[in-house]
């Protein structure tokens, strides 16, 4: 999604208040944005905590800062600055985290983001965006830019099933209709869940993609909730169970008295074998590949 991000920010660069800060990343991808912004494109170096603090200062002076780094270097390394400098002051800082989930593959757990939106959802006023497909990025940049408070954007790699076309971006959207279980997936893993059932008939699952969190800021729409009665709800996310959408939706259903038939989750399992590999390898170990999802969610 880096190319789409660059294009969307280049289109937004005419705004004189936009400032972009990178943690020494983006080479071979963000040069068009660098050229468009000139002195408003700042390389903050490998100093993410400082970068977030600087962004907070810029926002406090009325500018629109966007920060960019690998996802765990954003939410984990600079959590104190995000919490204290940005969120407690409701500052309009846009945090771009590249490589959500297992996206950085063999680089291992230091570069994986398996608890990012669960951690950040605890902070006041922070809206989280998780685009599912490459075509979502322009709409996400526009929405994040219009957000009255802080925003975090988790970037990954969109995977639309062959022969299908993703519907236009909305925070919650239906990818396929079916009378079976209701499957909800967060961000890019929605493409994998969709592909698992893309060829099923009307008795197959109803598959949805969710791209904005937390539920308090992006509640399920009515057309989603009306489909839950008497059905099994399945939540799929490339994120640990703790703090994920599955837990939040389970509480939401209990509090609202939603009469589900059953409830299942498939989440990131960490590193069961103790070895590191590609994103596809880690997804398979967690049961997040298409074949495993089909087996788990229709058993």
TrEMBL record:
<dbReference type="Pfam" id="PF02779">
    <property type="entry name" value="Transket_pyr"/>
</dbReference>
<dbReference type="InterPro" id="IPR029061">
    <property type="entry name" value="THDP-binding"/>
</dbReference>
<dbReference type="InterPro" id="IPR051157">
    <property type="entry name" value="PDH/Transketolase"/>
</dbReference>
<protein>
    <submittedName>
        <fullName>Transketolase</fullName>
    </submittedName>
</protein>
<dbReference type="InterPro" id="IPR009014">
    <property type="entry name" value="Transketo_C/PFOR_II"/>
</dbReference>
<dbReference type="InterPro" id="IPR005475">
    <property type="entry name" value="Transketolase-like_Pyr-bd"/>
</dbReference>
<feature type="domain" description="Transketolase-like pyrimidine-binding">
    <location>
        <begin position="1"/>
        <end position="162"/>
    </location>
</feature>
């Amino acid at each position: 999604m880096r190319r789409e991000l660059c294009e969307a920010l280049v289109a937004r660069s005419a705004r004189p208040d936009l400032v972009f800060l990178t943690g020494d990343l983006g080479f071979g991808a963000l040069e068009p944005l660098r050229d468009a912004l000139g002195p408003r494109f700042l390389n903050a170096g490998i100093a993410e905590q400082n970068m977030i603090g600087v962004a907070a200062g810029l926002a406090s002076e009325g500018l629109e800062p966007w920060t960019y780094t690998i996802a765990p270097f954003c939410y984990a390394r600079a959590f104190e600055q995000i919490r204290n400098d940005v969120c407690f002051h409701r500052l309009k800082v846009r945090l771009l985290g590249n490589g959500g989930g297992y996206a950085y593959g063999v680089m291992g757990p230091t570069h994986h983001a398996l608890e990012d939106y669960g951690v950040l959802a605890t902070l006041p006023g922070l809206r989280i965006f998780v685009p599912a497909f490459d075509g979502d990025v322009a709409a996400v940049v526009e929405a994040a830019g219009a957000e009255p408070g802080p925003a975090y954007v988790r970037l990954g790699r969109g995977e639309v099933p062959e022969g299908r076309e993703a519907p236009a971006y909305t925070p919650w959207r239906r990818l396929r209709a079916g009378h079976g279980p209701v499957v909800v997936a967060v961000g890019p893993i929605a493409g994998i869940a969709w592909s698992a059932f893309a060829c099923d008939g009307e008795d197959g699952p109803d598959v949805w993609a969710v791209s904005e969190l937390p539920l308090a800021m992006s509640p399920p729409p009515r057309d989603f909730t009306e489909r839950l009665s008497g059905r099994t709800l399945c939540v799929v996310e490339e994120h640990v169970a703790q703090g994920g959408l599955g837990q939040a939706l389970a509480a939401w259903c209990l509090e609202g008295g939603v009469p589900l038939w059953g409830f299942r989750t498939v989440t990131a399992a960490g590193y069961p074998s103790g070895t590191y590999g590609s994103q596809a390898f880690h997804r398979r170990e967690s049961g997040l590949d298409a074949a495993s999802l089909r087996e788990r969610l229709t058993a």
